[in-house]
Structures are given as C-alpha cells and as structure tokens.
Amino acid sequence: MDSKCVFCKAFQMCVFVSRRVVGPAVTFKVSRNSQNVSTADVANVAGRSSSIEKCCELFCVFGGQQGSQIKQIPTKYSQGESTKFLVLTVVSILCIVGVLLASTVVYCLRHRSHHKLKEKLTNLGTDSGGDATATYQELCRQRMSVKPSVDRPEPISSRINSVSSQFSDGGPAISPSGRGSISSWSEEPAHSNMDISTGHMILSYMEDHLKNKDRLAKEWEALCAYQAEPNATTTGLKNGNAKKNRSTAVVAYDHSRITLKVENSQGNSDYINASPVMDHDPRNPAYIATQGPLPSTVADFWQMVWENGCVVIVMLTPLVENGVKQCYHYWPDEGSNLYHIYEVNLVSEHIWCDDFLVRSFYLKNMQTNETRTVTQFHFLTWLNQNVPETSRTLLDFRRKVNKCYRGRSCPIIVHCSDGAGRTGTYILIDMVLNRMAKGAKEIDIAATLEHLRDQRPGMVQTKDQFEFALTTVAEEVNVILKALPQ
Hints:
Radius of gyration: 45 Å
Helix content: 40-55%
Number of domains: 3
Largest sheet: 8 strands, mixed
C-alpha cells in the first residue's frame, strides 16, 4: 500500500486517536478500525519514511504498541539553518580569540613599559644624573639624524690659509672604520658673545706668531723657563703614594690636588694624582686634570668622579700606543664592573667617527644606592707627545663635549696618559675659547698657559702642542667671526 494513501485513508476513518501536536510533528495512536490498519502497517510505512519526509517536511520517528512512549522529540529538519548556525558559531569563536589575543598583547606591552620605567626610576632616584641621560639621548638622536655631507668643507679665509695648512680640511672625507663608524661631520659653533675687535686682534696675534717662527720659539723658551710657585709635590712622592703616579715628572702639587674621603677610599688614603684647574672662580674648578688610571687606582678614579659630582669625562689617549700602555681599561666592555664600592654599568657606546666615540655609564654608589649618569668622550687618534692631524677634528670633538656639559657647574674630568701634555693642550684651547665666547676683551694665550702650570706641572709639553693650540684657537675664531653679523 502506498504510504501516502495509508495516511490519508487512516485520517479519513479516524483510525488515529489521541492525536497531539508536538512542535512541528503530530503524534497519535492506532485504534481498531474496519480497514484493519494496524500498528504493523504504520511501522511498515515508517520504514519508508524518506518519501514521507520529502512530502510533509516532517522528521519521522518510530512509535511502539498502544500505550508506548515516544523517546525522542521530533524536530523539523532544515539543512540551511544548521549551516547558518555553524558559521555563526565559528565566527563568534574567532572574534573571542581575537579579542583575547589583543588584550594579552596590550597587557604585555603596558607591563613591560611600566617595568622599564620603574627600573629606571629606581636606578636614578632623584639624582641629577637623569638630566645627563636626557642630554645624552638627545645628543645621540641629533647625531644619527645628521646625514654625511657630500660637499667639501668650506675653506678658511685666504688670510689664515697663508699662515698654516692646518687652517683648512679640504682633503677627502674620512672613510668609515671597520667598526661601523660614521664619517666625520662638522657642527656650527655655539652662540658666541665674542667681541669682533677682540677676534680680529687674536687673528693678528696668531698670524704674527705663526709667520715668525723665531718669535714663536722664543715665546716657547720663556714658557719652558717658567717656574710655578709654590711647586711642592711632597704628598705625591711619599712612599705610599709614589706607586700611584704614572710618572714622577707629573705629580699633583701639594697646594693644588684633589683629595679623596679617606673613609671611602679603598687604600685608606686621600691621594690621587689629579689637580683641580680653576678659570675665573677659585671656589669652583672648571676642570680636573688627571693621569690615566692605573690598575691600582681605578677605584680612586671612580671615587673622584663620584665625590666631585662629575658627569663628563674627556679621554685623550688610546689605551695602548706602540705597545706601550697609556691608560688602564677602567670601564666595562659590557655589563657592569664593581670597583670597590662603585659599580660602573656600560649603557651604550657610539662610534661617532674614526677619531672619537662616546660611551654612557651608570655609576652607582653601593653604600647609598644612588645612581648617576656619566658620559665619556674618547678621542682615539691623538698620540703622546704629538698633535691631532687637523684642528677641525678636535674642534668638532670639543663642541660635542660642551653640548653635553652645557648648563652644569661640576668640573669636566680631562685625562690622557700623564695628565699634562694632551690634557693641558685641550684645556688651554677650551679655556681660551670659552673666555672669548663670554666676551673677554683681552686674551693672552701664553699667560693662560702659565696660569694652568701654576695648578699642575707640565701642562702642554711640546712646542708643537703650543703651536697647535694657537692654530686651533685661530681657526675657531675665524669660524665664529664668519657667523657673526657684519
């Protein structure tokens, strides 16, 4: 019997009783009937349920004998709705996963940033070293933003060129070193209040000296004959202190030496071969001239840096020259080193050009847990008893040092090997140019050198170094005069 006919006939004769609608389905019982439609007939038709499902859009389930219970609630079958539900479920899961990942990334970044800030504040505390850090970072950003110029540097005026070949630097640009350095660059001098008439007077003075070699030689002879008074070096030559000197020819004067706090000293001594160098204010030294540290005096050196509040170190010597040690390696190549109670941590090292590089340190006092930032400017190509190849390179170096130091009142530490020849030459140049920048009406370079030698013996050791100082000052004065409104 056709399944459709069975159902239609049964409905007409009211064979199905107890009919109920359950969701989209109809349930019923088969009663006795004259057509002898039995439960078996219904079951037989249910076995061919696919045609019924297609015709009536019902999902057919099996029933039992009269009085049995349906064990599964029939539902309407829809392939389209099932697919939509699956797609929505997958999309929802993906959205939830995306939100969780984004939240995790944001949390990690904020946590890392907060941790770094907390660590930095913990290290620096309220010390003024933070200013040095900001200055150093700004210095690095400005340096890296400078593109090497393809133009040859502008030649100095013919008036100065006729005097000395060192007044121009028209040679080929210095090639980058194997360590990934950046070629040399120039920077305009800082704003100067130099008196124009004084500047021209200085240029005339330099021209006369550099043209007249005999006059320069006589002036140098007079400087060599100069004797400082007082000049006792008793403290530095004592048995316990003599071993702390690189050379007995350059020892700090008794009346003009840096003294360390004995209670913080590694050797229970207040001696270090270092001299305060005053300019116009005897209460506040502008520089500390010192020798390159020895292995036994490294802790004393960092103690001096700490106790004098220094934030800038100018190093004018390579560590080794022609197989001879010029200075002990007093800083870590990486990480940190502990020197007595002072921990030195290398923060960064930048090779600015072939001639010099810049290092930044965190200096921590392990007794007080205070931390400061110290910047070291290391000039690499100035050999002992000699002069740099060009004035321009040293002037570029000096501008960078002073840009980092600007606005501070602490002394600049300057050292070479013995703390006299190259150290004295650099301080002489810097002191004269600073005086001129402040508007000084009279400048006597020879008298300024005598003033330096009153405070430390042997400052500027050769005639070539003195002549180089004159040439360098003249070159910078010429550049400043060009920049001034005419």
